[in-house]
Amino acid sequence: MPTAPPSRCLVTGCTDWAVARGRCAEHYTPWEQRSARNTNTDRRRARAFRSAVLRRDGVCRACGQRDAVEADHVRPVADGGARYDPANGQGLCAPCHDSKTRSENAARNRQRARG
């Protein structure tokens, strides 16, 4: 079965080969493992994060015109951002959140393609 060619680490300036999730051994941090024991806690913490961010912001931080309806991570969790810290959150309207997510994904894909 064919496999993908090796690629370089996604972290800017790092030239090591990626070993997992596009990162080298130095920059790779494993995802939090979910289990039957912590699923409810994760949901509670996620709801608390969302409500704290939306309560704090109220209006979209990007455009400042519409009500904030989505809690977005300023620094994506995949890039090392804190998952449940409201300081890493911002309230966005749906169109601004979609636009931000698309641009982050496009940048991540361009970085992977450069290899």
TrEMBL record:
InterPro entries: HNH, HNH_nuc
Domain of life the protein comes from: Bacteria
Domain HNH nuclease: residue ranges: 48-98
Region named Disordered: 79-115
SMART domains from the UniProt entry: HNHc (SM00507)
Residue ranges with Basic and acidic residues bias: 97-107
CDD domains in alphabetical order: HNHc (cd00085)
UniProt protein name: HNH nuclease domain-containing protein
Species: Nocardioides nanhaiensis
